[in-house]
């Protein structure tokens, strides 16, 4: 420091070499220099990309808003129960004195459902064969769960061959992904002992004070989605308290120049950044575009608009930005708000963004006209640019790279049969039949890719290939749900029995190829004669694959589509009936409620 000061003085003209005057001016100049330095340092910190905490302290009142409102709610609901866990107690102490009752009225919510609330008897099929198939799926769930409980309890996933747990690095130190992902599946299947074990674990052991690097998308779809649906299905306040604490921890990810969140967030510090593999620090369409359903419900439960504002801001930007041929590329800069690459896909990196547009419309009780408009225009652009017919007559969705088509479809893209069919009714009347046909054709293509009754990660339509994986690296199957998901929606909306038959083929194949002594495992090559297991029971197998199979063999009154939309991890979230919730409540025949 001395060196710097003397350098500064040496350059200052007019400073006398001796006496009082010199000491005073030296002090003055020194103070001036020091204050300049401090200002510079603070300024620089604000412009660092991850200066989230500083911004929180010094800027915007809206950043602190969720804390107060969400906690008001929690404080009030906590007075009804004394089982709040450590993480909730810590935050509640900062909210002494909140006294406005903003808590969500669960009973009113139940009255606003069109079909009566849940009971485990719902959906029981009268036909004995279907019932037997449904029981089989329930047995598979119990088997997967029991093994997870025996060998991996509290870890994120089960490794069924080595009989141990897997933690991974997607959830920022959060544990028990398989437990949170399974809550609603166990509940709707009536596996009540298992559900109660899961609930107790969430209550006593789900520690939200973790400090690791999490995928915003994965934590949102699995943990936030799982806790929200557990709350809505059961009315257990504990799930609501947990999800509000977690929801708030995700908010700093939106502190970017555009409000488009980055992909990775440290749940402890709130610092966020982009995936190293995402080009030029971009955010991924399927990640920032798959928050809407959960965030709207976080606002509903907390009576705080901040969550809805965050996702509506994303939508505003997407609406404004120019889209090549009406398409949405997969990479967007959270700094400039511009597309980074022109790669468009209905599979990985793009998929659930489109899904959430139509589901936002449906979940809003068909009032969200903007989501509706965006969905049907996106679908039109997809049809014009991506939908193809193979020489063998199979309809598929190719990928688009700056105008050049890659004739490949991922397993992930097979959800789109289900997406197109749930949106068929609300499109232009003259398009209704067309959408039903398109959904059926895509689902048929995906079924064709299941040549060994399970299908590869990606299949191609070039060089003579017809829905087959031509590369060894594309031949794995990791217990993914998308094809079965489309069977379930196609069944619900057409009641064509072939979808139940196709679902049953998948059950038999899962039993034959993926069931091992201690759980279910993915396989490395769906075409190989001798099976090679990947030693992983993914949490989405319990959350999605088995749930969709169970629903496929259930009657339509189990989670009726008039009342529920499924998030992209198959967690059911209720349709928000604003006028009913704000009024007297009660849309269904009260004699059948409870
Ligand atoms: C799930 O986590 C979700 O379905 C997500 O949208 C895509 N990937 C997996 C299942 O394949």
UniProtKB/TrEMBL annotation:
Its EC number is 3.2.1.-. It comes from the Eukaryota. It holds the Pfam family Glyco_hydro_47. It catalyses: N(4)-(alpha-D-Man-(1->2)-alpha-D-Man-(1->2)-alpha-D-Man-(1->3)-[alpha-D-Man-(1->3)-[alpha-D-Man-(1->2)-alpha-D-Man-(1->6)]-alpha-D-Man-(1->6)]-beta-D-Man-(1->4)-beta-D-GlcNAc-(1->4)-beta-D-GlcNAc)-L-asparaginyl-[protein] (N-glucan mannose isomer 8A1,2,3B1,3) + 3 H2O = N(4)-(alpha-D-Man-(1->3)-[alpha-D-Man-(1->3)-[alpha-D-Man-(1->6)]-alpha-D-Man-(1->6)]-beta-D-Man-(1->4)-beta-D-GlcNAc-(1->4)-beta-D-GlcNAc)-L-asparaginyl-[protein] (N-glucan mannose isomer 5A1,2) + 3 beta-D-mannose; N(4)-(alpha-D-Man-(1->2)-alpha-D-Man-(1->2)-alpha-D-Man-(1->3)-[alpha-D-Man-(1->2)-alpha-D-Man-(1->3)-[alpha-D-Man-(1->2)-alpha-D-Man-(1->6)]-alpha-D-Man-(1->6)]-beta-D-Man-(1->4)-beta-D-GlcNAc-(1->4)-beta-D-GlcNAc)-L-asparaginyl-[protein] (N-glucan mannose isomer 9A1,2,3B1,2,3) + 4 H2O = N(4)-(alpha-D-Man-(1->3)-[alpha-D-Man-(1->3)-[alpha-D-Man-(1->6)]-alpha-D-Man-(1->6)]-beta-D-Man-(1->4)-beta-D-GlcNAc-(1->4)-beta-D-GlcNAc)-L-asparaginyl-[protein] (N-glucan mannose isomer 5A1,2) + 4 beta-D-mannose. One of its GO terms (cellular component) is Golgi membrane. The chain crosses the membrane at residues 28-48. One of its GO terms (biological process) is carbohydrate metabolic process. It is found in: Endomembrane system. Belongs to the glycosyl hydrolase 47 family. This is alpha-1,2-Mannosidase.
């Amino acid at each position: 420091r001395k060196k710097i000061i003397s350098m500064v003085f040496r350059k200052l003209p007019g400073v006398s070499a001796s006496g009082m005057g010199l000491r005073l001016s030296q002090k003055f100049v020194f103070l001036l220099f020091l204050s300049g330095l401090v200002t510079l340092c603070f300024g620089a910190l604000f412009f660092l990309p991850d200066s989230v905490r500083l911004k929180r302290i010094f800027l915007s009142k809206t950043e602190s808003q969720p804390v107060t409102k969400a906690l008001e709610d929690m404080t009030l609901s906590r007075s009804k129960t004394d089982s709040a866990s450590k993480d909730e107690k810590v935050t509640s102490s900062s909210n002494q004195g909140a006294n406005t009752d903003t808590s969500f009225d669960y009973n009113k919510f139940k009255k606003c459902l069109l079909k009566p609330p849940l009971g485990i008897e719902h959906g029981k099929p009268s036909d004995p064969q279907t019932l037997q198939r449904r029981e089989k799926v329930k047995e598979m769930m119990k088997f997967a769960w029991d093994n997870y409980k025996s060998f991996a309890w509290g870890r994120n996933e089960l490794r069924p061959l080595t009989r141990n747990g897997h933690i991974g690095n997607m959830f920022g130190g959060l544990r028990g992904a398989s437990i949170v992902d399974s809550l609603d599946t166990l509940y709707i299947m009536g596996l009540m002992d298992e559900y109660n074990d899961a609930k107790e674990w969430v209550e006593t052991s789900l520690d939200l004070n973790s400090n690791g690097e999490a995928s915003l998308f994965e934590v949102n779809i699995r943990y936030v989605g799982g806790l929200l649906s557990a709350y809505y299905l059961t009315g257990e306040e504990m799930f609501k308290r947990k999800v509000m604490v977690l929801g708030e921890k995700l908010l700093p990810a939106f502190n970017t120049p555009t409000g488009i969140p980055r992909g990775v967030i440290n749940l402890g510090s709130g610092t966020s950044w982009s995936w190293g593999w995402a080009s030029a620090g971009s955010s991924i369409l399927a990640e920032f575009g798959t928050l809407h359903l959960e965030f709207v419900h976080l606002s509903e439960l907390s009576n705080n608009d901040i969550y809805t504002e965050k996702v509506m801001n994303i939508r505003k930007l997407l609406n404004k930005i120019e889209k090549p041929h009406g398409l949405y590329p997969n990479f967007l800069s959270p700094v400039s708000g511009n597309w980074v690459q022109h790669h468009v896909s209905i599979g990985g990196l793009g998929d659930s963004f489109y899904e959430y547009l139509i589901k936002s419309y449906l979940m809003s009780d068909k009032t969200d006209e903007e989501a509706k408009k965006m969905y049907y225009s996106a679908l039109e652009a997809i049809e014009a640019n991506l939908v193809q017919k193979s020489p063998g007559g199979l309809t598929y969705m190719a990928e688009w790279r700056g105008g050049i088509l890659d004739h490949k479809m991922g397993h992930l893209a097979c959800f789109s049969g289900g997406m197109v069919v749930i949106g068929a009714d609300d499109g232009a009347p003259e398009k209704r039949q067309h959408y039903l046909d398109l959904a059926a054709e895509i689902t048929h293509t995906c079924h064709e890719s299941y040549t060994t009754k399970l299908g590869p990660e990606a299949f191609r339509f070039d060089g003579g290939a017809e829905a087959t994986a031509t590369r060894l690296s594309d031949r794995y199957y990791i217990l993914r749900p998308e094809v079965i998901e489309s069977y379930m929606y196609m069944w619900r909306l057409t009641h064509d029995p072939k979808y139940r038959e196709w679902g049953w083929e998948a059950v038999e194949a899962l039993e034959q190829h993926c069931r091992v002594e201690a759980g279910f495992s993915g396989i490395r090559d769906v075409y190989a004669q001798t099976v090679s297991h990947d030693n992983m029971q993914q949490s989405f197998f319990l959350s999605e694959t088995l749930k969709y199979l169970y629903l496929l063999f259930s009657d339509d009154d189990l989670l009726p589509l008039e009342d529920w939309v499924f998030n992209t991890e198959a967690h059911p979230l209720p349709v928000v009936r604003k006028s009913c919730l704000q009024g007297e409540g009660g849309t269904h025949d009260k004699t059948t409620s409870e």
